[in-house]
Amino acid sequence: MSALRAGPEAGQAAGTDAIRIEDLHKSFGPHEVLSGVSLTVAPHEVICLIGASGSGKSTLLRCINLLEPIDSGGIWLLGQQVTGPGVDVNMVRRRVGIVFQSFNLFPHMTVLRNVTLAPMKALRMPKAEAEASASDLLARFGLADKRAEYPDRLSGGQQQRVAIVRALAVQPQIMLLDEVTSALDPELVAEVLDVIRELATAGMTMLIATHEMGFAKDVANRVCFLEDGQIVEQAPPAELFTDPKDERTQRFLRRIVQAGRM
Amino acid sequence: MTSQDSFGADPLNAPVAGSVGAGAGLAGSFGASGRGPRLLSGGGRRAVAVSTASTLVVLAALVAIFWVAPGSAAVRHTFFSPADMWQSFIGNPKKGYYSVGAAIWLNIRMFLVAEVLILALALVIALVRQSTSPVMFPFRVLAMVYVDFFRGVPLLLVVFAIGLGVPALRLTFVSSQSAAVYGVSALVLSYSAYVSEVYRAGLNSVHRSQLAAARSLGLSHGTALRYVILPQALRNIVPPLLNDFISLQKDTALVAVLGAIEANEAAQIYSSTVFNFSSFTVAAILFLILTIPLARFTDRLIDRDRRRRLAGAVT
Ligand SMILES: Nc1ncnc2c1ncn2[C@@H]1O[C@H](COP(=O)(O)OP(=O)(O)OP(=O)(O)O)[C@@H](O)[C@H]1O
Ligand SMILES: [Mg+2]
């Protein structure tokens, strides 16, 4: 865990939370997207983030992965503060995988090379070892026969599974998933959700932004509803979906039901 | 040098490696299904016969006009005299003129050396201009000024400035190089400005999300550039790069003004010694022999690119 931070004065304040976010603020120009988000995620916990389009779910995940600089507040991962000076961002990112809505596979590389690039270049893993563990991971997610294919020869569901495997290949302790099924045809959604379920069963700590309410109900230990740049309400899915306390959550869920998405 | 704007600026349609195979499926067709305008269109034997006939008619017409022109005989003698063409091609030092055929080797060598240096220097300039770190700010400004300057100043003036200015400084070593070295330096300085813009268009053609994806895996910025961004960028810019190198090949002739005995200068010496311009015709033919293969090769790459894009759009 000390690998997350270069400095010797690494803060241990947050104990053993996998993720701790305190009063996080983030603006794009005049537009404050996150205005005081606080969230704690325990190890092996699966959290789903729900909220209207534009509510800042992606921005929150990108901040945690340090892809976006934050304005104020703090983020602790595995007990180490990762916001502030002296943090080795590459080291942090190896511990926190992120998968995007749009796959973002490298189109000029085969599936195998997509998966082995980071282990080889970031973790300095020998090629044979990287390929062996990549092959294991690909096989585990039903992609063994796609090793030599280029991404544009794969279906969307296969591409997204490769993207998940690619993120897993650096052996992260936390996975951030940003609407990983939104770009998929309905019949391909299930295969990707199955992969995420398997990860949850294996004990992966996950923070998942999703529009799939049924899936959130099914897989999440806790669901967080995001609006106006804040987490308005968080509760176990059984509670949040059936008996939302906050009026904004109620309104959001009513709209989802009306749209036939739950 | 030509505008590169039409290349590599479209991330959505950027060609990708995996579609090569898919493109092959379309190779047999033409027109709407992806061949684009080709020099020799498909359509079988009849089409070949028609295009051959029309080529012959056009050629015959041009030759006829040339032949009946009032000054035709004089022009044929001064520009197309076979004896003079041969003499200037092989050269004759005793009579005071050089072989144009041998001199073209200097052009080729200058071109090859300049090309390698341009590719390297232009990449550095492009990467500096694309950098975002505040530390790089002064270098970004410098790179921008450099590109603005060398794209704005005519190449000939740069050749003069380097070829006459640097020796006049009378520095050790730097001021005592050959005309060819100064010429190549001028070509490198000037072309690097253009080629860096080609690189930049290529880098921009790779969608930002590719960089985010690479960085999110814990790859450093440099590693992400090296393995993820640059390979995709380069694939997109090969045709415009080749285009610039076609003009670089013939711009090596500008080094003649510094007295380097390259093909153009050898032809000039012949014409002023013998008072016949056929030597220039020889030089022109030699330059064409150099540039035409590269031009056709560029066409083929552009064609392949188009097919790939269309194949990508189909899937
Ligand atoms: N790089 C950026 N520059 C400027 N504004 C941005 C940027 N990224 C996001 N935003 C803005 O921040 C707000 C939140 O965006 P974000 O993508 O985080 O929402 P989201 O909850 O993920 O929405 P969706 O469900 O549509 O994915 C939006 O209003 C968006 O326009
Ligand atoms: Mg989003």
Task: Give a brief description.
The complex is a heterodimer of chains A (262) and B (315). Chain A has 262 residues and is an alpha/beta fold.
State Rg of chain B: 24 Å
Radius of gyration of chain A: 18 Å
Counted by DSSP, the helix tally of chain A is 9
Question: What is the molecular shape of chain B?
Answer: flat
Level of helix content of chain A?
25-40%
**Major sheet of chain B: size, sense and barrel closure?**
none
- Stated plainly, the CATH topology of the largest domain in chain B is called MetI-like fold
Per CATH, the architecture of chain A is: 3-Layer(aba) Sandwich
CATH T-level fold name of chain A: Rossmann fold
Order of helices and strands of chain A: EEEHEEHEHHHEHEHEEHH
* Distance from first to last alpha carbon of chain A: 40 Å
Order of strands in the sheet with most strands of chain A:
6-7-8-3-9-10
Kindly state the mean pLDDT of chain B as a whole number?
84
What is the CATH domain class of the largest domain in chain B?
Mainly Alpha
User: What class would the helix/strand composition of chain A place it in?
Assistant: alpha/beta
Shape of chain A: globular
Top-tier CATH class of chain A: Alpha Beta
Name the biggest interface: A-B, 30 and 25 residues
Question: Between the first and last Cα atoms of chain B, what is the distance in angstroms?
Answer: 36 Å
Q: If you had to describe this structure to a student in words, what would you say it looks like?
A:
The complex is a heterodimer of chains A (262) and B (315). With 262 residues, chain A is α/β, with parallel strands linked by helices. Chain A has one domain: P-loop containing nucleotide triphosphate hydrolases (Rossmann fold, 3-Layer(aba) Sandwich). Chain A contains nine helices and ten strands. In chain A, the strands form two sheets. Chain A has a six-stranded mixed β-sheet with strand order 6-7-8-3-9-10, sandwiched between helices. Chain A has a four-stranded antiparallel β-sheet with strand order 2-1-4-5, covered by helices on one side. In chain A, helix 3 (111-121) crosses helix 4 (127-140). Chain A is globular, with a radius of gyration of 18 Å. Mean pLDDT of chain A is 89; it is low at 1-14. By secondary structure, chain B is mainly α. Chain B folds into two domains: 3-77, no CATH class; 81-314, MetI-like fold (Orthogonal Bundle), CATH 1.10.3720.10. Helix content of chain B is 72%, strand content 0%. Chain B contains twelve helices and no strands. The longest helix of chain B has 37 residues, at 278-314. The complex binds adenosine-5'-triphosphate and magnesium ion (MG).
